Amino acid sequence: MRFVATVALFALTAGAETINPLDMRWTFGAHEPITMYRRKGVRTTGGIEGGSKWVADWLNWFDTESPALMKDLGLNWCHCRFYKGMGWEFEKRDFPNVKRFVDAAHANGVHVLAYVQFMTLYYENMLAEIPNLRDWAARDHEGKMMYYHGGGYYRWVPCISCDEWIDYLVPIMRFAVTEGGFDGVMFDNAFSRHCYCERCQRKFRAHLAKLPNAAERFGFGDLRFVLIPPDTVLKDAEIKDTLVQELLFWRHGQMNDIFAKFRRELKDGWGTPRNARFTGLSAISTL
Q1: Which of 24, 37, 60, 68 is the most buried (most CB within 10 A)?
Q2: If DSSP codes are grouped into helix, strand and coil, which group holds residue 44?
Q3: What are 109-128's pLDDT values in tens digits?
């Protein structure tokens, strides 16, 4: 399946405009909460065995002891767990531990980005906070719920056309760079899968209605009853169907708009530290 993939890194730090990538010595942070390790149960991120009794002890060591080790090794950047997609009401329980790590990292000269999962709704946890969470989830061409790849049956894929979901992430980012003290935000799995829910169908048709010379391009001008093309036609090596081409343009535009909004919120929004500078890296590709 072709989908839109976006890699986004937002750093909000004093003097960030002077950062030289050659001076950045990045290390791999503990960016998964214990619930993720336990739920998965097998060896996963960082080579950690999710079912092991020592996972909690390891996370505690990371939060308290690892910043000094990073300093000794000459490391000065990492990312740390903050929001995995389980709902903020659930995940904020871990915030005191996360904040302890951020403070310890800064005391040892290490910059920290808040890890934010973009493409996951852990419905088993999040439904308690968001009863209408099903309305935020993406649907496949047959109308079935989409799940995260790799056997993640407990992770719904969100629909990027859902404004409620995008707006939900904004205050979480705010909290990361204000109360959390993070130096920025790193989005993981910032991609999208083609969704076929009624909301996407409606928005796609609204997009088509704004295009000039539709009759010339598509062969007909009345686009009120168009449906989003099925997955099967998105697998072609060369796409010549003009409607499918426009679908890809539209999805790229959606992703651009989402991350432009996130950028504005981090740069111009609430609580930006005095004299802070914003740097952003955003790349979009079709796979």
Answers
A1: 37
A2: strand
A3: 999 999 999 999 999 999 99
